[in-house]
Protein 1
Amino acid sequence: ARAFISSVAEGDIDGAVKLAGRVLAADKSNRVARLVIGVHDLKLKKYAAAQASFDKSVRGPITDLVGTLLSGWAAYGAGHGRAAVANIDKLTGPAWYPIFKDLHAGMIDELSGRQKDAGMRFARAYKLDDSMLRVVQAYAHWLSINKDDKAAEAVYETFDKKLPRHPLVE
């Protein structure tokens, strides 16, 4: 189990995947091992297997959120974008969940061609935290494509006032 956690912490996902199977043989309820195997299956486009692993990984605020979001991406990959967003929306938890739920649901909506829904999600996430880089990028990008460049520039300018000269924003 320690070698598995060390592999995950060091970013050695291939090693972690190999060890995750051994960890699960000893502890079928190990949530981190389920997440690692699920991510590996997602990478291999084994969406149903990934969803099954993610569903078994939930049972705590971080694993509930991560497992649900990853399961949503697996559902999207399998062609079920609306179901992915619906499942993300069902998740309840701490006060910090909504920003992640809206960001990921917005990205799935955008990729699924539901631009109006994506814009609503990105706007809500942005209202929750206008200093979170990924939210700023997603919302400004959506604005530049679906609304106008001036609105997108305003989002970046607001961010630049909070965190000047960020290389990704510049």
Protein 2
Amino acid sequence: MPKSSRARTALRILGRSIVYFVIGSILWVALYRFVPPPVTATMLVNAVDGRGITKNWMSLDDMSSNMAVAAIAAEDGNFCRHFGFDFKAMYNALENNIEGRRKIRGGSTISQQTAKNAFLWQNGGYVRKALEAWFTLLIELLWSKKRIMEVYLNVAETGIGTYGANAGSMRYFRHDASRLSRAEAARIAAVLPLPKKRAAIAPTGYTRRYGDRIARRMGQVQRFGLDACLK
């Protein structure tokens, strides 16, 4: 087969693959607008490692509003104001990390974390990041902000083998997420960045201080209406 023919064949295959991926990903995201994700890549990896999967889906309407407010206070103060990406936060995170400050910070929004947790995997380089950006755009287009927060608070890892705020609440506080107090929600939010290294019950050191800061920020989130898109 001449080189030109092979090149055209390869381009056709590539083009079809891209079309199938775009259509498939749109349908996948559209499905999760109404159906809770049954399992995620992170859950499967941890299950293979012997950590198991403990989860208990709870709608955002049934969950204490303290949990969503705590997530905004901890992870993404501009959640209701951006369209998936907070470029100012990304720049500040990059500047902070380049300057070598003690705590390395990321600039991912709750929307980006939801896209990663629900559709992708935890590790990876530029390919994963590019896919994350694509799925972030899709959920912002096809879901409401309320749905994004609902999925995030149900699939995010809140402890080793534990997923979602409701399962985390039952693990740490022995009651479901409908009864989370401000302090309890802040503690779960403090665990989210490093669930394998932090515990929400009887936290010490940085986790305790971070949880206390989140609890204080929650008042500002409510005072300035930064959670308005969830009401």
Protein 3
Amino acid sequence: VQAGGMTKSYILRYRVHGRLTQFTLGRDPVLSPAEARKEAIQKLGEVHAGNDPLKAKKNAANVLSVKDAAKRFREEHIETKVKPKTRTEYTRQMDKTVLPALGHLPITAVTHEDVAKLHHKLRETPITANRVMALLSKFFNQVEKWGLRPRNSNPCSDIEKLKELGRDRFLSKEEIGRLGETMLEAERIKLVSP
């Protein structure tokens, strides 16, 4: 325990490869003495197993979140390499569906199960579910190219598309007018029987 002014910090000192290192476990009163002791025992177990808890903590701090990687994907891919209509759709899917579900996760921690759960959650709208999976697959392929995930680790692989039912579409007034004109012309030249 180190006291500085009014706050106390719980510090674990240990050696890794002969070098003295210290790891801050937490501060009082956020961490009680019993919790600090328990945490210290766990960290010493990691040291005994040959791991450096401080190095692991620094590595974890350097990992981008899905939200951070999505910002880069938007700037370097969506805004520059896709058509305007697709850009609008990708942006909407990212903001409305992907980021609320996965944005908080470290990019390296997203699993096949995480993506499959999101796909399943969207099953009532199969077209949307499949479009979101297509976007996520492109996103994770790009993340791999940037070196933020290992190659061939795309969590979207092996997720089967949902069956998409046809959508009803009604003709616009202009289309109805053109259809009527075409039918009249076809009748005039005897292409269709009355």
Protein 4
Amino acid sequence: YAEASPAGYGGVSLVRISGPQAQPILASLADTSTWPAHQQRFCRLNLHEMTEQAFAAYHPAPHSYTGEDVVEIGCHGNPLIVKHLLKAIHLSGLARLAARGEFTRRAYLNGKIDLAQAEAVAALIDARSVAGIEMAAKLLGGELSGELGELTVRLQDLLTLIEAAFVLDEAEL
């Protein structure tokens, strides 16, 4: 689990949980235990010391960013509320705080994105110009991966022709 939005004050903060315990954690915090797939629902969260009105969505594996069960909780963008939400998730004992970039790493390891796309996520986040954003967005969209895939097929075809030429030369000996 981790805060997926920048820390600080704002209208909404987003907290993401990924892994097989994501839905049970949400069910333990929320006033409802039924979560239809890919639908954002209003709920009240019991955060031990306070309650919070929030919205949440459950994305079952493999149809999520990471390829695992994912829960996204949108709460009011007050750092104290986010702190209590993260604490409540931690106190469930079912999840640990995610490392920086871990959701993208899991997406890569679960075959949801390739390495070029994973690197594009970091480039998109760190971009400092419109041109940088556009370049990273193209990479994230799979443009480079598609070109590399086509090049790989062409090289495999060429290798097949070269191997066939060697076989024909050996047959003539």
